[in-house]
Amino acid sequence: MSYPSSRCSRHVRACLIFGLLGGLIAAPVAADQATIPGVEVQRLARSSQSWNGHPLPAYRSEQPEITILRFRIAPGARLPLHLHPVINAGVLLSGELTVESKAGEILHLKAGEALVELVGELHFGYNAGAEPVDLIVFYAGNVEQPIMELAEEATGHD
């Protein structure tokens, strides 16, 4: 089968040009790699593992739900032994926080540092410092799924 060469080549060239331009325009750019005048972006965390090196679980297929909590922990205060059945990460805004797993793994955080929390593993946090802890935590769960279970309530974990 033969095609008129000028018409076919113009059509092919146009498809190639628009395809390449579309690919360039649609090419993903990470927000922390983009250059935007007057905007500074700093990556605080990016990981497929929790802070102790264990891999994060796959997301469930139900309706997702994001929860964002702010914790203010007084000096000397300790959170109870608990676990998270959902992936979560946080940023310590002020103070110093120590997180300890039931297995004895310890993480010390200072203001400005981020953490990717343990999932399905018992742990607790405490403020051994002299100033209050201010912590923001983002939970990526599902509708009607708990984001935290106390040790007494946790079943099938640890």
How are helices and strands ordered from N to C?
HEEEEEEEEE
- Determine the fraction of residues in helical runs and give it as a percent range: 10-25%
Number of strands: 9
CATH architecture of the domain at 64-150: Sandwich
CATH topology of the domain at 64-150: Jelly Rolls
- Helix count equals 1
Main sheet overview: 4 strands, antiparallel
The overall pLDDT average reads: 85
| Backbone CA Rg | 24 Å
Protein described:
It comes from Allochromatium humboldtianum. This is Cupin domain-containing protein. Keywords: Signal. The chain has 158 residues and is α+β, with helices and mostly antiparallel strands. The chain has a domain of 87 residues: Jelly Rolls, CATH 2.60.120.10. The chain is built from one helix and nine strands. It has a four-stranded antiparallel β-sheet, with no helix packed on it. The longest helix has 22 residues. It starts with a helix and ends in an 8-residue tail after the last strand.
Compact summary:
The chain is of the alpha+beta class and 158 residues long. It has one helix at 5-26; strands spanning 64-73, 82-83, 87-94, 96-101, 106-110, 114-116, 123-126, 133-142, 149-150. The protein has a four-stranded antiparallel β-sheet with strand order 1-8-3-6, with no helix packed on it. The chain has a three-stranded antiparallel β-sheet with strand order 5-4-7, with no helix packed on it. Strands 2-9 form a two-stranded antiparallel sheet.
